[in-house]
Amino acid sequence: MRTVILLLVFSILTLNPASASPFSEKLVQPAKETLQEAASASKDFVKDKFAILKNKTSETFARITGKVNDLVRKDLETDQFIAHEVFIPGHEDKSFVCQGITYLPASVAEDPASQLKNRTYRIALLSYYPKTDYTDLPAQIVAVDMFSGKAIARFSLYLDKEKAYKGHAGGITAVGKYLWVASGYAIHAFSLKSIISFVSLARKAKTVSNFPVKSLVLPGAKLFSAISWPVDSKASYLSFDGKFLWVGDFTKDSNKSYAPIRHHQSNPWKKPTWISGYRVDKTGFPASRVKYSYKDGSATRAAYKPDRVICCRESVQGMAVFKDHIALSISYGAANSKLAIYRSPMANSAKGRTIKFGEKIAIEAFVLGEKEGNWLKTVALPAGSEDLEFDGRFLYVTFEGSSANYRNRWLLQNPKITISENFYLINPGKLLKD
């Protein structure tokens, strides 16, 4: 493993006018209220768009059906289990789309399992992938204060000093020393200590860096990956349960671009989605050292062997283990999303079945499903639900539906859907209550 080199650019916080932003030669030194004004402007923009679009879609749908549809954008009954919700910045522009979510510990944990000791976290991290038709900038991580609702810091991701990371960033999770980012059959490690340090400094900063998205005009820094670690998964989403890093596939039978990896389809339950679980060491790094190759369409890929896998239904955008249960975030296109809840087949140290492929590979496997007897309930969520995380107390879920890339188009396609401007913290006890 190469030496971990994590360089974080702090120069933007310097009060010296000659200091250089990592995104521009010009330094922006706004009035004290600038960040609040940017966030407010973004919220006002979204609300105005919603109001105009609601009227338009209502009129259009009424003309098509011959009657006024009272169900246009009807609110979902989510108040019963949502403990807290916070505005998702950055969606007023088409440049970036929110995908991943996790919490930010106040310090690096000596034992990653201690992160899930039912504590209250103040900072959430959101990941955004760049829409390359609108921006040449890298993927972004944004820190949001969940108490105040304000975005406070932003990170541009790089695989090395020369290569910007422009991947999907579909899932993120904090584990020990690392923030792990999932994308493109690999997970990428970034220094959690550097993120924590910069967020602390950003709270006091009076200087921000230029950025094309108004609500993301924040103190910003470049963050460089320590390592990219290949996994047996498409790496569409990511979560941590205290012992295992879970890295999952997104599959969709109706879209060949999202076809399952060949050996993932050979599970005994014929489930299309495969979620790889990697046990981590005390630093938060995967312990697996067995590496193998596999076929994916016309490509041959290398990956580290997972310690266990979960097989489940298609259209999964996020997964989280919470206590003795597992939640799946399920969404695709212009429709309300689903949050499906299962009893964990791994609870009480239960043993799974052995899946074999190739000549020597055998992996312990578990299944989630209604027919398999562990499905409990499914509740509706707003359109475009994405990554999930559990912090020991709350389930986190974020949404891409309020992005300018999708909001108008989806509402025109389906006026009945609900769009959320906010990410949610969900109370699992209320969620499971009948």
Can you describe what's shown?
This protein has 434 residues and is mostly beta strands. The chain has one domain (28-432). The chain has 4 helices and 25 strands. The protein has helices spanning 34-65, 192-202, 407-413, 428-432; strands at 82-87, 96-104, 123-130, 140-145, 151-158, 171-175, 178-183, 186-191, 220-224, 227-230, 237-240, 244-248, 273-279, 291-296, 299-304, 308-312, 316-322, 325-330, 337-343, 353-357, 361-367, 375-381, 385-390, 395-399, 422-426. A 6-stranded mixed β-sheet has the order 11-12-13-16-21-20, with no helix packed on it. Strands 2-3-4-5-9 form a 5-stranded mixed β-sheet, covered by helices on one side. A hairpin with a 4-residue loop joins β23 and β24 (395-399). The chain is globular. The model is unreliable at 1-39 and 48-75 (pLDDT under 50).
